[in-house]
Amino acid sequence: MISRKGTKGTLLSHIDRSMARGIMKTIILSYIGHHKTYPYALLKSIRAHNSPIARFVSKSDVYNMTAVLEKEGYIRSKKDIKGGKAQKIYTITGKGKTVVKNRDLLIKRMAIEMKRMLKEEFNE
User: Fold this and answer.
1) Secondary structure of the chain in the HEC alphabet?
2) Using CA atoms, how far apart are residues 45 and 49, in angstroms rounded to an integer?
3) Distance CA 63, CA 38 (A)
4) For the whole model, what pTM was predicted?
5) What tens digit of pLDDT does each residue of 29-38 get?
6) Domain boundaries, the chain
7) What is the Cα–Cα distance from 6 to 97, expressed in whole angstroms?
8) What end-to-end distance do the CA atoms of the chain give, in Å?
9) Predicted local distance difference test score (pLDDT) of residue 3
10) Rounded to whole angstroms, how far apart are CA atoms 3 and 21?
11) What separation in angstroms does the CA of 49 have from each of 45, 52, 54, 81, 91?
């Protein structure tokens, strides 16, 4: 599970995990939008970028997130046999492409909303 040491069980840890999940879902969708792939390759790619978020992402997180994204209709899987083993290869759907296409707008809106909320909080 995505978590941060020292904040486990607090509201901050819940917010951190929720934000990290949202960011990871967007990263996974973006990656699958450019490369059909399987979950372990996603994990290796995420870790290769040395992102601060990558330190908190486990193999099971990536597998769970791809399952959720598939259930929600953003990606689809196809079984492929490699080296005698069945693997799920993921590709992005039209719904997923729309999210990737609009991700910059979503990030800007989220940043604007966070700034507005913080400004209101400190102006009271």
Assistant:
1) CCCCCCCCCCHHHHHHHHHHHHHHHHHHHHHHHHCCECHHHHHHHHHHCCCCHHHHCCHHHHHHHHHHHHHCCCEEEEEEEECCEEEEEEEECHHHHHHHHCHHHHHHHHHHHHHHHHHHHHHC
2) 7
3) 9
4) 0.71
5) 989 999 899 8
6) 11-123
7) 37
8) 36
9) 44
10) 10
11) 7, 9, 8, 28, 21
Q: What is the pLDDT of residues 67-86, one digit of tens each?
A: 999 999 999 999 988 888 88
- Top CATH class of 11-123 equals mainly alpha
Instruction: Decide: 16 and 6 in contact? Cβ < 8 Å.
Output: no
Q: Which residues of 33-50 are buried (b: 16+ CB within 10 A; e: fewer)?
A: beebbbbebbbebbeeee
Are the CB atoms for 32 and 88 separated by under 8 Å? no
The sign one gets for the Cα dihedral 83, 93, 17, 20 is positive
| Measured distance CA(14)–CA(97) in Å, rounded | 28
- Report the 10 Å Cβ neighbour count for 95: 13
